[in-house]
Design a protein that fits this description.
The structure is a single chain. By secondary structure, this protein is α/β, with parallel strands linked by helices. Helix content is 47%, strand content 19%. It has 15 helices and twelve strands. The protein has a five-stranded parallel β-sheet with strand order 2-1-3-4-5, with helices on both faces. A four-stranded mixed β-sheet has the order 6-7-8-9. It has a three-stranded mixed β-sheet with strand order 10-11-12. Strand 1, helix 3 and strand 2 (73-77) form a beta-alpha-beta unit. The two termini are 39 Å apart.
Length: 321
Amino acid sequence: MSKPEAILAIAKKTIEMESTAIQDLVPLLDEDFVQTVQSILNAKGRVVISGIGKSAIIASKIVATLNSTGTPAIFMHAADAIHGDLGTILEDDVVICISKSGNTPEIKMLVPLIKRGKNILIGMTGDSNSFLAKQAHFVLNTFVAKEACPNNLAPTTSTTAQLVMGDALAVCLLELRGFSSSDFAKYHPGGSLGKRLYLRVEDIANNNLKPQVDISADVRQVIVEISEKMLGATAVIEKEIIVGIITDGDIRRMLNKHDNISGLKARDIMSPHPKTINTDVLAVKALELMQDKGISQLLAVEGTTYKGVVHLHNLINEGIL
C-alpha cells in the first residue's frame, strides 16, 4: 500500500499542473474570444455545443452553465450528429465544436456539414493549426503543455482547460446581458440554491406560530408562551408596538438571578430594542444578520407591525444554511 505522503504528493502535483495550465490560458485570450462572445450575444438562435469523448462531457457541462445563466444552449454529440442529429442545428444558431486535437475523424466529418449552412462555427481546441481551428470562424485556444496523467494520455489538464474556457465564456455573457440574481432565481427555483434567491422572511414567519406577550404579563405567561410556540423566544408588546424580546436565555438568567420570581413581569426580564427584520427581505439576509449578531431569532416586522419570528432552525430546515 502506498504511503500517505506519496498519495498526497501525487494529488498536489496534479492540482499544481492543472492550476498552472489554467493560468496559462490567460495570454491565449484574444480577439477571437471577443468575437465569439459578441456573436453569441447578437445571435437570434441558441448555442449548439458539440464534442466527442471527454470533450463531449465538457460540452454538456458548458451547455448546462449557459442555460442556467441566460444563454439558451443545447448539446449535440459529434458522433450522433453525423448519423442524423445534425438537424439539431437551426439557421440562427451559433455552433461550438470542442476537440483537444481538432483532428478527430468525427470532427473532420462534422465541420464541413456545419459549414454548408450559415451558422457561425467556433472551434475550441488545443491545436491552433488543427483542421478544426483552420475551418472555424473563431478559435478558443485551450492549449495545454501536458496532461496531468503521467502517461500524458488521459484527458485531465486539457478537459480542465476546456471547462474553464467555457466558464469564462458563460460569465462574460452573463455580465454583458446584465443577468441578475433575481434572473438566476427564475432558472433555479428548486433546492437550497433557489431558496437563497427567492425565499423571503414572510414565507418563513407566516408558517410559524406568533409568540407574543404584553409587557405586563407575568413570568408564568411568558414561559407558557415560549413553550407553546416552540421558537425559543417571544416578542413583548405594548400598545401594539414591539418593546422587547424574551428568549430562553433570558429565562435562564432570570432563574439564576432571582430566588422568588412570582412578582416578576415581562418588562423586568425582557431585552429591549430587539433585532428585527422586514418581511420582504430575503431569508438569506436574516441568516447573515443572525450570524453577525450571534443570535438565533429575529422578529419579523412589516413597517412597525409585528408579524412573527424567524428562527435559525427554520433557515437550517429550509437549506439556507
